[in-house]
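Hi R.,

As promised on Friday, here is the backbone we talked about, encoded as structure tokens. Could you run it through your design pipeline when you get a chance and send me back a sequence?
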């Protein structure tokens, strides 16, 4: 174990595939969300939310599902409510030659106990990722995901007032099938994962003369 890691506690285990986690402090309690399913690629994923007062003892707060394959949950706070954002993988449609489509959904709670029904996130075919809040907006770098052609995947910068409906501000990266992208801070430095050979996690940084996040210019900052 690294000298920097002081202790490790298991949040949840049941012998299944529990992964893709996020953590958020909400009303003095810690929440961890993960996907629970039979396997990494199985179509039975559900979003499990665990809660703790001390980061050592955990109990289940909610099990969220659309009845399809829910995965990659992210936690965010908006308007005094805790939100869980997750992509829902829709099974393939052979008649349309589509392996699977993606529709992101959002659940919310005022107290960590009573959760809303899922709200459909817009636009479709975008895998919502972890949002950051700045200047009255929520900012996010999802990735457009068309399973028929990975060459047209791209990562836009998007913003929203409610975490459900998002509008595109600019395009961060559109080559080498970019996908999971983290916004590092409010002035929008980011790290993008690209699975293509020879292109590993390029970092692209967004600068504007005024410090505002509305420019369409992104500059490459290295790998």
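Update: got your reply. Pasting your designed sequence below so it's all in one thread:
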């Amino acid at each position: 174990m690294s000298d920097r890691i002081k202790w490790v506690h298991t949040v949840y285990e049941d012998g299944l595939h529990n992964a893709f986690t996020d953590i958020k402090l909400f009303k003095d309690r810690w929440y961890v969300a993960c996907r629970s399913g039979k396997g990494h690629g199985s179509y039975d994923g559900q979003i499990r939310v665990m809660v703790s007062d001390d980061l050592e003892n955990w109990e289940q707060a909610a099990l969220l599902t659309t009845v399809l394959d829910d995965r990659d949950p992210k936690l965010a706070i908006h308007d005094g409510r805790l939100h869980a954002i997750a992509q829902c993988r829709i099974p393939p449609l052979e008649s349309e030659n589509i392996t699977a489509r993606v529709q992101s959904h959002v659940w919310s709670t005022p107290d960590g106990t009573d959760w809303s029904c899922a709200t459909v996130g817009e636009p479709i075919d975008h895998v919502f990722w972890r949002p950051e809040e700045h200047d009255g907006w929520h900012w996010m770098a999802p990735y457009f995901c068309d399973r028929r052609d990975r060459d047209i995947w791209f990562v836009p910068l998007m913003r929203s007032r409610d975490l459900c409906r998002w509008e595109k501000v600019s395009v961060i990266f559109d080559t080498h099938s970019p996908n999971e992208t983290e916004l590092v801070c409010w002035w929008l430095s980011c790290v993008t994962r690209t699975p293509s050979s020879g292109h590993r996690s390029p970092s692209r940084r967004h600068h504007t003369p005024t410090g505002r996040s509305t420019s369409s210019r992104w500059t490459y900052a290295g790998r």
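One thing I noticed while checking it: Confidence is low (pLDDT under 50) at residues 207-213.

Thanks again,
M.
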